Structures are given as structure tokens and as C-alpha cells.
């Protein structure tokens, strides 16, 4: 599993214990923390792993290089799930030189108190390890300000940091020729198909705000010959590179496929009945759609499908003359991700004064969404007569 090529070895770990990533996002299939060795006359370690896996991680390194020393620690990304073993690497290899860009330096000091033997690189700088070399490309805000990517020309390999990453631990192998999504019994035989939803969920949950800078990074890297993408989460991509890059390109352009993401939150079930009525009308018309209950499931999946489909319909009752909080939080999250290019409609119940639909429309208008109607706001109990979803379903179809 560890040998990617004669020059590149995988030394990362799978996390099957953590149930929530970043304190927010569910991990039904776990997650991997990927780290790599580039081995030549000198040895470079690219990123580290999460602190809980220190012993396993160090053993992985020693199995690959024995008593040889690590000469360089390349820091593509400072997020602690990839940098938290930096101090341990310094203790194990006292002469190791840390390589990062200028924005990395204060973060290294702030997190780990390290200030010495740091080599600062700029866009296009290169270091030689012997018969292979590493070139550095700055990719700020993909998805932190210090992020960069490392390219090994001789191996045509891009070490991409969190870009092109995915939720889900990796089993059976590390490359997409033999890797599978850990614990997923209905995973497709093709690795990209198996990981696609978890990649889209990772992107929408974590990277989603930074579409513009992802596009800039894709443009910068477009001239490189890339035969392998080594991300910090998920499989190493070799045979599915085109599909992976195309997926990131589409997501970062906010281009949804044809279909409807229905998201709702309901206090006493009336808005829920309206949401299910719309789903039934779309079913009659053969329109692809999904339905998410924000009161019972993590918003992670609603974000994923809001990025996936080109139409978004949100239902929420009025609460304290405002949007019912679970739906408000979703709308706020969509706004924070700077989403665009969506057809939009809102609906919801109220008892004595309706406000939620109007306020959701205002939030959608600020994002430049195409409002399909003034929305469907109905008093008290749901009935088809009060909230007829057939006309909206026609527009969505």
C-alpha cells in the first residue's frame, strides 16, 4: 500500500475513530491524513498527519527509510490535521529543514514555537533532492492563505494539499487503481464513483467559499503535465485525474447539474408536508431531486446537494418574525460560501404573520439567484389548496 513509485512512498494514516471532522462534518466512512516521502539522494517529507497517530506515523516513515534522515519537511498546508506532528519530526530528525512560504512562518511559530532552520520559498522556486526536484506553486486561499502545492517534475506528480481531497478513509490500496472507500458496502467498482459524493461533500463543506481562488489555482497549474495527484485526504489519483479535475472545476464555478435540492426545517410538520408535496410533484415529472430535513440531519449533506444541483428550494416557517433557525443557518452557510448560478424558490408556514419566505428571497437575491416565484407562504396547517406545489414543480421541470 505504501509504494506509489520508486521515488514516492505513502506514509499517511486512516482515522476510523473520529465521527465529526472539524467539530462539524460527519465522517460515516472515516477520513485519511495523507503524507508522502520523496526519496532520492536526499529525502523530503511532504506534510505530516494528525497528532493522535504519532506512533503509527513515525513507524510508517521508518519502514520506508530505515535509519536514513529526513532532509526536508515540506509544508503545503498548516491546518493541524496535517502539521501537528511537525515538532515530533524536528525531534526525530534535528537537522530537518522546514520548507514553506512566507505566510507559513508565523503560523509555524504560533502553533509549534519553531523559528529556526526554516527555508522560505516563493512561487516557482525549486529544490533538488538529487535525481528528482520539487517546485513550489503558491495557491493562496485554497483554502487557507498559506496554502501551496508541490510538483515533482520527474514523477509528474502534484502534491496538492487539501485540494482534490475527499472525506472517507482509504482501504485496499492508496491509488485509485486499487483503493476503495472504507466501510462502504455499496461502493462502485470505480474508485472515483465510490468517492465522488464524499469529495463533493468535502468541497462544499470546507472549500466551497473559495471558488474564485480554486479557479485561479487550476489556471496556474494547467500548464503542468500531471500524471498523479497526491492530496492530503482520500485516494492518490492516477487513472481518474481528468474526472477529479473536472469535478473541482465544475464545483468551483458553482455549476450545478440539472436537478432540485429541497431543504426544509419544520416545527410542527406543516412545512415538512409542503416539502414532501413538492418532492412528489417533481417525482411525477421525472425531475431528479433530493430532500433534506435540517432538523434531523447534519447540514453537511444539504450543502453537498446544493452544490450538486442547479435548483435550490428552501422551506422554513416563520419564527419570531424571522426564518426558523435551522433554515436560517443553512441560508447563511450558502451565503458564506458565495454560491451563485442557482434557480431558487422559498416556501413556509406561519401562524399570525409570515416573514420567512420574504427574508429567504432577500438572501437569495443578494446572491444573484434566479427567483422562480414570490414564494409560497401559507397560514397555519398545510393543505394542498393553501400551498399548491404543482406550478412550482412545472417551473423547476
Write the layout of secondary structure elements.
Layout: E1 8-10, E2 13-15, E3 20-21, E4 25-26, E5 31-33, E6 36-39, E7 43-46, H1 54-65, E8 72-74, H2 80-83, H3 86-92, E9 97-100, H4 104-112, E10 118-120, E11 126-128, E12 133-138, E13 148-152, E14 157-161, E15 170-171, E16 180-181, H5 191-207, H6 211-221, E17 228-231, E18 236-237, H7 241-252, E19 257-264, H8 270-284, E20 289-293, H9 299-308, E21 309-315, E22 318-319, E23 322-323, H10 325-336, E24 343-350, H11 356-366, E25 370-371, E26 376-379, H12 390-396
Parallel strand pairs: 7-8, 8-9, 9-10, 14-17, 19-20, 19-21, 21-24, 24-25, 24-26
Antiparallel strand pairs: 1-6, 2-5, 3-4, 6-7, 11-12, 12-13, 13-14, 15-16, 17-18, 22-23
Question: What labels would you give this structure?
Answer:
397 residues, alpha/beta, six-stranded mixed beta sheet, 12 helices
Summarize the structure in words.
It is a single chain. The chain is an alpha/beta fold and about 400 residues long. The chain has helices spanning about 55-65, 80-85, 85-90, 105-110, 190-205, 210-220, 240-250, 270-285, 300-310, 325-335, 355-365, 390-395, and strands spanning about 10, 15, 20, 25, 30-35, 35-40, 45, 70-75, 95-100, 120, 125-130, 135-140, 150, 155-160, 170, 180, 230, 235, 255-265, 290-295, 310-315, 320, 320-325, 345-350, 370, 375-380. It has a 6-stranded mixed sheet with strand order 1-6-7-8-9-10, with helices on one face. A 6-stranded mixed sheet has the order 11-12-13-14-17-18, with helices on one face. Strands 19, 20, 21, 24, 25 and 26 form a 6-stranded parallel sheet that branches. Strand 3 and strand 4 form a beta hairpin. The protein is elongated and about 75 Å long. The two termini are about 45 Å apart.
Amino acid at each position: 500500500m505504501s509504494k506509489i513509485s520508486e521515488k514516492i512512498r505513502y506514509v499517511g494514516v486512516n482515522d476510523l475513530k473520529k465521527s465529526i471532522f472539524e467539530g462539524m462534518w460527519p465522517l460515516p466512512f472515516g477520513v485519511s491524513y495523507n503524507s508522502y516521502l520523496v526519496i532520492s539522494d536526499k529525502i523530503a517529507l511532504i506534510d505530516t498527519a494528525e497528532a493522535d497517530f504519532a506512533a503509527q506515523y513515525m513507524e510508517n516513515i521508518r519502514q520506508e527509510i530505515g535509519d536514513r534522515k529526513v532532509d526536508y519537511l515540506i509544508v503545503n498546508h498548516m491546518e493541524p490535521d496535517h502539521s501537528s506532528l511537525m515538532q515530533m519530526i524536528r525531534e526525530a530528525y534535528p537537522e530537518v529543514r522546514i520548507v514553506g512560504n512566507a505566510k507559513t512562518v508565523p503560523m509555524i511559530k504560533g502553533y509549534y514555537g519553531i523559528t529556526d532552520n526554516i527555508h522560505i520559498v516563493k512561487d516557482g522556486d525549486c529544490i533538488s533532492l538529487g535525481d528528482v526536484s520539487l517546485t513550489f506553486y503558491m495557491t493562496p486561499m485554497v483554502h487557507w492563505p498559506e496554502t501551496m502545492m508541490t510538483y515533482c517534475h520527474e514523477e509528474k506528480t502534484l502534491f496538492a494539499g487539501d485540494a482534490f481531497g475527499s472525506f472517507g478513509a482509504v482501504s485496499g490500496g492508496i491509488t485509485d487503481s486499487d483503493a476503495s472507500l472504507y466501510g462502504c458496502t455499496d461502493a462502485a467498482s470505480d474508485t472515483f464513483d465510490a468517492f465522488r459524493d464524499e469529495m463533493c461533500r468535502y468541497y462544499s463543506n470546507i472549500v466551497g467559499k473559495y471558488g474564485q481562488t480554486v479557479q485561479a489555482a487550476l489556471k496556474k497549474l494547467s500548464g503542468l503535465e500531471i500524471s498523479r495527484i497526491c492530496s492530503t485526504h482520500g485516494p492518490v489519483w492516477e487513472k481518474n485525474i481528468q474526472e477529479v479535475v473536472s469535478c473541482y472545476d465544475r464545483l468551483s464555478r458553482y455549476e450545478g447539474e440539472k436537478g432540485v435540492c429541497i431543504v426544509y426545517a419544520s416545527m410542527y410538520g406543516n412545512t415538512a408536508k409542503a416539502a414532501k408535496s413538492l418532492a412528489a410533484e417533481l417525482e411525477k415529472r421525472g425531475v431528479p431531486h433530493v430532500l433534506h430535513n435540517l432538523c434531523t440531519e447534519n447540514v453537511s449533506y444539504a450543502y453537498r446537494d446544493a452544490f450538486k444541483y442547479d435548483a435550490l428550494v428552501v422551506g422554513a416557517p416563520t419564527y419570531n418574525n424571522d426564518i426558523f433557525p435551522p433554515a436560517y443557518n443553512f441560508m447563511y452557510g450558502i451565503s458564506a460560501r458565495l454560491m451563485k448560478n442557482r434557480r431558487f424558490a422559498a416556501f413556509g408556514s406561519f401562524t399570525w404573520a409570515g416573514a420567512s419566505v420574504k427574508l429567504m428571497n432577500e438572501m437569495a437575491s443578494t446572491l444573484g439567484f434566479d427567483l422562480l416565484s414570490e414564494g409560497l407562504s401559507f397560514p397555519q396547517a398545510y393543505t394542498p389548496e393553501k400551498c399548491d406545489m404543482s406550478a412550482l414543480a412545472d417551473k423547476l421541470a
